[in-house]
Amino acid sequence: MSRATAAELAALLEPFEGQKGATIDALKQVQARYGYIPEEAIDAVAETLGVSRNTVFGVITYYEFLKLEPPARHTIRYCMGTTCDALGGREILQEITSILGIRVFEATPDGTWHLERLPCFGTCSLAPMMQIDDEAHTKLTVEKVRRIFAERLPGEPAPIAGDGMPAPSEQLVKELEA
Ligand code: FES
Fold first, then answer.
1. What separation in Å is there between the alpha carbon of 118 and the centre of ligand 1?
2. Whose CA is nearest to atom 1 of ligand 1?
3. Is the model's pTM score more than 0.70?
């Protein structure tokens, strides 16, 4: 992913010049362009809006949807809802973190996997479940997640086959994350 140049950032942030109350909007604009908030954009936002770097950094760390790291190639959204939890969700999540060597909300150092969690997908009859990119994986067990990741690690290439069920819509995910 290309780094943000000063000229690009200046053009992108021009509409926010001097607008101290527009930090979130300016950061959203940056993230929409680059997929995350590049380090160099923090100073550019601060200077353009006339706020401190700490203010910009504080907003980024407060809002979970604002990312300081480039997006990983694959996002795992793991359900942490009550039903999934009651059916062994914690043990399964622990297996995933162990396989990938990361915790929730972290990415693998090679940028391949990012692990997130959601409160409930709204499809509890298929619990425990997770979503990898656009594929839903349901009725998970520790064995099943081992098989899913064994198809991809090490190396990666082959696409993971889901359970043939559509992943929760973007709208639903946004509502759950709100
Ligand atoms: S609790 Fe996991 S889908 Fe509802």
1. 9
2. 81
3. no
27-52 as b/e: b if 16+ CB within 10 A: bebbbeebebbbeebbebbbebbebe
Highest-scoring range by mean pLDDT, 61-75, 99-113, 124-138, 162-176: 124-138
Nearest to 96, CA basis, from 157, 156, 161, 149: 149
Give the other-Cβ count within 10 Å of 92's Cβ.
24
> What is the C-alpha separation between 103 and 85, in angstroms, rounded?
17
- Work out whether the CA dihedral 3, 68, 112, 172 comes out positive or negative: negative
pLDDT attached to residue 70: 83
Atom of ligand 1 nearest to the CA of 81: 1
CB atoms within 10 A of CB 177: 12
| pLDDT of 1 above 50 | no
pLDDT tens per residue across span 41-75: 999 999 999 999 999 999 999 998 898 888 889 99
Domains of the chain: 6-62 (no CATH), 74-177 (3.40.30.10)
Contact assessment for residue 5 and residue 38, using Cβ atoms and an 8 Å cutoff? no
84 CB less than 6 Å from ligand 1? yes
